[in-house]
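Handout for the seminar on molecular recognition.
Each group receives one record of this type.
Step one: identify the two inputs.
Step two: read the structure output and locate the region that could contact LBFN2T5F.
Step three: write two sentences on what you found, then compare them with the reference statements printed after the record.
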Amino acid sequence: MLLKFTKMHGLGNDFMVIDGVTQNVRLTPEKVQQLGDRHFGVGFDQLLLVEPPDDPDMDFRYRIFNADGSEVEQCGNGARCFAAFVLERKLTGSKRIKVQTKGGPIELRVNRDDEITVDMGLPKLEPWEIPFKADRQSITYKLEVEGRDEEIAVVSMGNPHAVLLVDDCKSTPVERLGSKIQRHNRFPENCNVGFMEVVNPGEVNLRVFERGVGETLACGTGACAAVVAGRLQGLLEPTVKVNLPGGTLTITWKEQDLPVLMTGPTTRVYEGHIRI
Ligand SMILES: N[C@@H](CCC[C@H](N)C(=O)O)C(=O)O
């Protein structure tokens, strides 16, 4: 079968986006891995599949696969690309798009063609919701890594995140620490690990070691989780500029019972087709 796709990115977090509304697409984890291979396939951090919704109140179903073939609950940068994709392909004419994901519903708002705000929903903080093994909910937890206690915050943005404060993002051993925390036995479904340096209450630097991929140039849900963790620790203002290696996102989280809003750009790189 000849499969049409679009290659896109959000701040260098790159995606193969497939229209599963007008094409009949069947993917296995092995197929996703082959397509995700940067030498033998298309190459991407995540594959995004647009499908018709199961829920009549929603406009689309948005499925997300990491490059290792695992299907996951949420992808923030992907959500912005998803909105640009469905508009460009005229799968919808609406600039407010309701999307069903494995991690819960989200709403996409298109401000300008190249800048999209996503209502990422409420962050979840109870340990069982992450999931994270702990007796009770707390703002931070001690986690033993390499024989030392690291202080982490845990947040679910639909998908699981650990967030650590660091003095200097650039010199942090993101891959070494990230891979240990990601697979720590207190995270039964593994997690994405963010290393956040607070520049001032309105700006942070962030690097994220993503589950199923490794360090990426940007992680939208990671940026949301970092701002939630920083706000809960009294370090950040309601709106924060999050500088990632691939560029900057604006994250707003005003209050506990309000959703997290993420604003940032999307880029279409090329369109292609591949025999699968
Ligand atoms: N790049 C993403 C997150 C993708 C999913 C993540 N790796 C996971 O396994 O949960 C983003 O922009 O949020």
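Reference statements: The first strand starts at residue 2 and ends at 10. The chain has a mean pLDDT of 96.
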